[in-house]
Each structure stands twice: as structure tokens, then as C-alpha cells.
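Board notes (copied after class):
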Amino acid sequence: MAWVNRGDSTALELASASISIGIYTDGRECHYDLARAANFNVCVLGMSGAGKTHNIRRLAQSFCGLGMTVFMPDVQGDLANIPGSVDIPFRYRSKHGSVNPLRVDSDPDGGGVDMAIRQAIHVIRMFSRQMGTRQEADLRALLDAAFHDAGFLAEDRTTWGKPAPSLKDVLDQAQEVLVRITHGVDENVLALIEKHRSKVDQILNKEGHTEKYDRAVARLTESVKRLVCEGVGGELGKRRWDANRLESLIHILEGIVATGLFNGDDMEIRRHQINRFDLTKLHKVDQQVMLHLLLERCFEFAKRSCKHLNPSIPQLAVVLDEGKYATAWMQDMLSPLNRIATEGRKYGCGLIMGVQSLRHLSEDASDNFGMSLVLKLSDKACERAARIFRVPESLLDQIQPRRDGLYSFNGSRFARVVLEA
């Protein structure tokens, strides 16, 4: 990602910052006070048509107005045309909008080459759920070799800042290995094979088809395998490759590389602005993978740019209008979304998430919202919200779509608020 400063901003130096939410029923103004928030996470809960997207758009603008950088993946197009936002379109085979899954986080805690390889395998598995353990081991060997060729050493942090290899590099290596184990024999190897074959022919002509002949054929077969495999250079040459398994892995990598979405970090991100990642033209599988990678980049940026732990207000906000797309990740403690939700406060990173039901959130995430705004809910979601938030269902039933909602700050008792238009 290339970062571009919009200009000097002192907004993030404010001792306090608040965002107007609406008016309490007793006439008092309702403000979300970031400086007093236990964390910077916001949950907007509401059914379709309740005004969830409208309030999320307004919150994103308010966060940006305080000088924060806003990351806003958009999978449905509902977040388009926000005044002042910068669109970053992701399209197939485009020259722009690409993320490299092999990028190395230089953070000594949770970063490095080993973690980059683990994350890359996780991403590739999202395209091929049926990948077996042996095929994964082949992929790990290819990734190890790609990083080694790019100058990375897992034990040497000074190498972690080099330009990372790409999936195209890994694909090229896999194809080269396949060629060498199936066809790649040079003149020296051919000469050695011919020498062994001549001995077999001599035995056959002299003694006929005997046990000695069978042993000679077996030695010839093993020698051919060994000599061809030795043609694969470096650490890759030490592995016993299976051509069919490797060919299957190549097909997976070819499909990923062909999209043009995962070949390198090619995005211009603007600080202190709303950066809308337009994923609307992608297949759902590619949307899921891209969301995972973008959230991972957001968390890396938050850690890297945080000057003081636990700042009074956030420097970065991540906006997800449809939290249901990330439901599976909320169950993974180490997913970037869960880490933003549970660890983001420490690095000045907030999460604004819109969901239609609390079942889309993990228990950890549900407990980590400094602000909750409940809009009109479906009957089923209403029952769950009443139980978890300890709010009478009769109070939830009184909410009018696009007009009012229930507001809670730092786990306080929910209060009814007439929302700003």
C-alpha cells in the first residue's frame, strides 16, 4: 500500500472528541465521547431498512472529520458517494487494486516470515478447502523457497523489510519444479541414464529375463528418479515431489494469479480521509479473501503507526456495513477482524460494524463495543438482543425505523434517542 498525506492535521492531537448521535427523550443532547470510551468499537444493530447504513455512513464521516483515516470495504455498493471519500476499485485483471498475500509484517510480535507463510497458506486454502496435508507441505516448501530467493531470512529481522515475493513467483517456481521432474533432464543426466540402460540391455542379451535383470531394471528406475529430482535446485531438490499433486497445486495458484487481485500491493491510500475499497464487482469468494487481506493490512498499519499505546482517541477506523460477511472470522481468535475488535484499542484503531443480528458476532466481539446503537429489529433478532442486552422487548418494539434507536455507552443502560437525520 502506498500512503499519501492529505496535509498536516492536528485533529488527532485533540484531548477530547465527541460525535453527535441525537437527542434523548428528555431533551438532552446525546454525544459519543471518544476520549471517555472504553474502546473505539461501535456496533450498529438493525434490520434491513431500519437506517443502519445511513448511520454508519454518518459515523464514518464524523470519524474522518476528526482527522482519522477510515478504511471502508464495500461489498454491496451501499457506501458509495460519501462526500470526500476516495474510491479504490478492485477489478479483475486491472492495473490497480491488488494486495499481495505474501507481504511480511515487520512487527517482531506476530510478524515475520513464518507468520507470512502461515497467512499465505490460510489465504490459498480459502480458494481450495480440500487441500490435503501433503499438498500444504508442498506449498510451504515453495513459499519457503520464494522468500529465500527474495532475500528473506526467518531469523534475521533486518531482511523483513525487503520487497516481498508474489504468488506469481511461487507459481513460477512450482511450474519449474514440475517441468524438471517430468521433462527436465540435461545431457549429463541423459548420459547417465543411457549408461544404466546399456547395462540392462547387456544382461538381457546375455542371460535373458532373470532375477538379476529385474534388479537392474529397478536400479535404473530409481536412478532416473534420483537424477531427475536432483535437477531441482536448492532446498526444493531435497523433496520427493509427486507430479500429480504438484500439478493440482499449480492449477490452484494459476486460478488465483489469473484474477490479477493478489499479485502485489498496488493501492494509494490517503491518510485522514475515507478510503472506500470497492469490492462490488468481485465474486463472493474473492470478496471474502480480499476482506481478510484488507483487514490484515489495516491492523498492521495501526500497529506500525501507533506512536503511543492506548491513545485517547483513535487514529484509524475500520468500517464494515455488512458484518455478516465476516461472521466466520469472528469465531477465529487470531483473525484480523477479531484482533481489531479485541486489541485495536491499544493501537488507536476502532471498528464500526453494522449487523442485522447479534448472532453474526462472536462473544468476544459482542463484549468489546464502546458504543452500541440498536435500531428496529426483526422479531427473531429482537428476542436475542433483549436477552443479551437485558432490554425489555416492549422497548425494542417501540423503535421507529429511520427515526430513533437505543443508545448505550461503555456498557451503560440503553436509553432511547431520536437520531440525527
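Comment from the instructor: The radius of gyration is 28 Å. The CA atoms of residues 191 and 197 lie 10 Å apart.
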